[in-house]
């Protein structure tokens, strides 16, 4: 009988070539642009969600000061709790490092991500009007419209504070 347990593990250097290919497939290139910064997710710290031997999700992040910033979060199989498990693992990682907060950025069109993060104790922090339009100068592959045919223009930052055991 197959082991259907979801395992979360840190990204290892051996994982990086395959992650580079996966990022191109998921994000239209090896880079993502968030708040005007170009990131190479396959080179970042992160966690993988694995079921049996199959990769089913991943999160990449960067840290600065007291903050862990989620750069990418992808559940390759939706509706199975993979994204939730990855966020819970990121919260644990940030706490182990003694960090005070976790941030994530999405777009005005990504209503599913806005719902997802808010249901996991993230609060809206900042709206950067025109940030996606500016990011398109650095990464022209960013589409003009997002989910639900909503024009992509703005970035929305979300934050989860970690200084309380209840958060």
TrEMBL record:
Pfam families: Acetyltransf_1. GO terms for molecular function: acyltransferase activity, transferring groups other than amino-acyl groups. The keyword DNA-binding does not apply. It comes from the Bacteria. SUPFAM superfamilies: Acyl-CoA N-acyltransferases (Nat). CDD domains: NAT_SF (cd04301). Residues 6-157 form the N-acetyltransferase domain. The keyword Endoplasmic reticulum does not apply. Keywords: Acyltransferase, Transferase. PANTHER family: AMINOALKYLPHOSPHONATE N-ACETYLTRANSFERASE-RELATED-RELATED. This is N-acetyltransferase domain-containing protein.
